[in-house]
Design goal:
By secondary structure, the protein is mostly beta strands. It has one helix and seven strands; from the N terminus they run αβββββββ.
Length: 128
């Protein structure tokens, strides 16, 4: 019992140490989500809302994005959290992928679904 309580108490501390902050609002229908230390992805029949993923990159980093679209629109943004400098922004209505190199520091990756059916994936790795 004590071990369970200890785990629940340390979970917020571990989350704070990873240098990330996520916000997901809206509605997903038949959604499959996956999060790892260097990626986040969702596949769904319908998405109406907004997801924001904030990371604090210690080094210059390559952010890769892959989307699939059966219908609807995705609004994607990758930008510097502190200065709002945009590294990528676009309204997508078909399958699309790209990679962008971002400097070290705070980065926000956001995706807004407008009656969207399909998937999206953000992944990141230190630039080699």
């Amino acid at each position: 019992m004590k071990a369970g309580k200890l785990s629940l108490l340390t979970l917020p501390l571990l989350f704070a140490m990873c240098g990330c902050s996520d916000s997901e609002t809206g509605t997903f229908f038949l959604c499959i989500s996956n999060k790892t230390t260097n990626s986040v992805s969702k596949s769904y029949d319908k998405f109406e809302g907004k997801c924001t993923y904030k990371r604090d990159f210690k080094n210059e980093t390559v952010v890769s994005v892959v989307t699939t679209t059966k219908s609807g629109t995705l609004v994607l943004k990758v930008y510097n959290t502190d200065t709002s400098e945009e590294y990528y922004t676009g309204n997508l209505t078909e399958d699309f992928s790209f990679a962008v190199t971002v400097p070290s520091g705070k980065c926000t990756m956001s995706v807004e679904g407008k009656e969207h059916s399909g998937s999206f994936k953000f992944s990141w790795a230190d630039k080699q």
